[in-house]
Structure formats: C-alpha cells, structure tokens
Write a structure and sequence with these properties.
Bound molecules: zinc ion
Distance between the termini: 44 Å
Shape: globular
Strand content: 25-35%
Length: 124
C-alpha cells in the first residue's frame, strides 16, 4: 500500500465541482465552504470543506464539533465588528476524502492523499 500526500498537478475539470457555503446566523456573511466533486487523482467522489478565514492561535476543530461551531461563531462576530474583511474570491485547498479503499487509499474515509486547489466565488 502506498499513501503519499501529494499536490495534484494534472488537469482539473472545474465544472465537475459544486461549492456550498455556510452562513452565519443572520445569513449576512459566508463563513465556510464545502466543495463536492471527484478527486482528480483517483476520480472517486469527495467532499471537503473548511472555514473561509484562518484565525491566529485559534484552531477550527473537527467539522461538526463544538469547537468548530465556536470557531464559526467567532468568525461571524469578527465580520460583524469589521475586524475581518469579507472575501469575494476564495482559494479552496482541498484534500481527497474518498471513502472507498483502493490502491493508495489505506482505509475508509481517509482519501488517497491527493490535494488540489480550486478558486471559488463567495456569494454575498
Ligand atoms: Zn479514491
Ligand atoms: Zn483521491
């Protein structure tokens, strides 16, 4: 078994991807992006996402966790206070999260190690 995290440098069909955004409580600011589409390396379906902003010294936690919800709430507050500037374009760094074990993919849900980037437009 081979498991080599590597940046994908081949072609990516941007039309194969869908981006969904999570907004704050009042729907004003987009806080997080989730991108669904095939891994360009192994072609399996993959969904990955992350907050649109990074805060120094404050980890976003695992998605779905209480720490993660607190992180998003903090982003929303900072945006409302003007401490963070809204983004209109976001460079999404994605990691393969395919769930089928296969050569190069060590177990369910862990992906094949490929990473790639897509530029997404943030709705406002
Ligand atoms: Zn795969
Ligand atoms: Zn993959």
């Amino acid at each position: 078994m081979r498991y080599t995290p590597a940046e994908w440098d081949g072609e990516i069909d941007v039309n194969a991807y869908r981006a969904a955004f999570e907004f704050g409580a009042d729907g004003r600011y987009a806080l997080e992006v989730e991108v669904e589409g095939p891994c360009p390396a192994c072609h399996h379906p993959s969904v990955d996402g992350h907050p649109l902003f990074r805060l120094d010294g404050f980890g976003p936690g695992g998605r779905g966790s209480a720490a993660h919800r607190a992180y998003l709430a903090e982003l929303d507050e900072l945006l409302h206070e003007g401490e963070l500037e809204e983004v209109t374009v976001h460079e999404a760094d994605l990691l393969c999260k395919c769930e089928e074990p296969h050569e190069g993919q060590p177990g369910a849900g862990s992906g094949c190690g490929a990473s790639w980037s897509l530029t997404v437009e943030v709705p406002r």
